[in-house]
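The instructor's notes for this session suggest beginning with a concrete chain rather than abstract definitions. Hand out the sequence below and ask the class to guess, before any prediction is shown, which regions might be ordered.
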Amino acid sequence: MRQDNFKMVAKTLHGFEDLLEDELKRLGAQDIRKGTRNVSFRGDKGFMYKANLCLRTAIKILKPIRYFKIRNEQDLYDQVYNMHWDKYLSHNDTFMIDATVASDQFTHSQFIALKTKDAIADKFRNTEGRRPNVDLKFPTLRIHVHIQNNDCTISLDSSGGSLHKRGYKTATNIAPINEVLAAGLVMMSGWDGQCDLLDPMCGSGTIAIEAAMIACNIPANINRREFGFEKWQDWDVDLFEKIEESCLRKVREFHHNIYGYDKAPSAVQKAKDNVKNANLDDYIKIRRANFFETQKENDEKLHILFNPPYGERLHIEMEEFYAEIGDTLKQGYANTNAWFITSNLEALKFVGLRPSRKIKVFNGKLESRLVKYEMYAGSKKAKFQNKENDN
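After discussion, reveal the predicted structure:
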C-alpha cells in the first residue's frame, strides 16, 4: 500500500451505503468498508479531491487524524490538547467543531464540541500566547469529533459544508428535495440515460438536474464554489486542477431528453434558473403543466421519477391526489417505468396500481418508500402473451 495513502470516511444518508460503495469502487478507492451511514476507504490527496468532486451520494468526506479511548470528558480534553494542532491551524485561523455521539456515557454532542474547542484554544494560548477564533459560518478548518461508546475519532472535514450543496441551486421551493437524496433516487431507480426522463412535479428542478448530471457523467460538485480542503495548509491547487480536468474529460453526450413539469409558475421559474446555473439548458426542458392533464408525447420508453407533495408541505386531499396519480399513469403513460417517493404509506393504497418494487428510504427524518409502477404498452396480459408467442 502506498505510503501517501490514508484512510477517509464518506458519510451518506441512511440506506445509501450500497450506492456509495459502488461509486467509490468505480472511482478507484482502495480498502472500501461499508458502515452505517458511511463508507470508509483509502486514497491519496488527489483521490480526496476527486471524491469530493465526483461522489453523488456522499454528504461529507472526513479525514481521520487521531483515534483514542476515553472514559470521561477530561480524557477527551487531555487527548485533544496533546495533539499537534499547529500542523493544521495557526492562531490567525478560525475553526469550528462538529460532534456526533453514540454512547451511554457521553450524551451531549454540544458539550463534547465545547470541550474539544476549549482544548484546542487552550493549547494555542499556552504555547503561542494567542488562539484561533471560532467561526461557525466560514471557518478555516472544520473539525469532526465522533464518539462511539468509549472510542473517539478526531477528523478533519475535507468537504467544508455538506456536499448536497452543489452550487447550482439559488432558488428553491417550499420543501426542496436534498440533492444527494435526488441523485440517490435516480441511481436506485436504475435510470441509465438510455431513454427520456420526466419529473412531472419538478419543484425547483433538483431531480431533473441530478439525472442530467448522471446521464452526462458530469462531476456532482463541479459547480460548487469551495471545498474545505482549499483552506488547508497542504492545499495543492495544481493537483486539484489536474484532477478536475481529468474528471471533465470523462463527460459524455446524452442523446435523449429530460423534462420537468410543475403547475406553479413560481416553481417553473425557479427550476429554469437552477437548470441554467447548472449549465444544463441543452438537456432539460422545464414547462408549466398540470401532470394530471398530460399524457405521453410518443410511444418510446419513458422513465418517470418524482417527489409528490406531502401533506406537511401543501394542503391536498390525499386520497384524491394519489388516485389521480394512478389514473394519469394508467390512461396516459403506457410503456413507462414510473417511480416516486412518499412518506405517506397509507396514501399508496389509493394509487390503484400494484407497485413492482418498494424500497425503504429516508427523506430527512421521514421514513419513506421509493415505489415503482410498470406501465405496459397495452395490457399486461397481452404483453406476456406476446412474449410467449415470440419464444
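Then share the key points. The chain is about 30% helix and 25% strand. The domain at 6-157 is CATH 3.30.2130.30 (VC0802-like).
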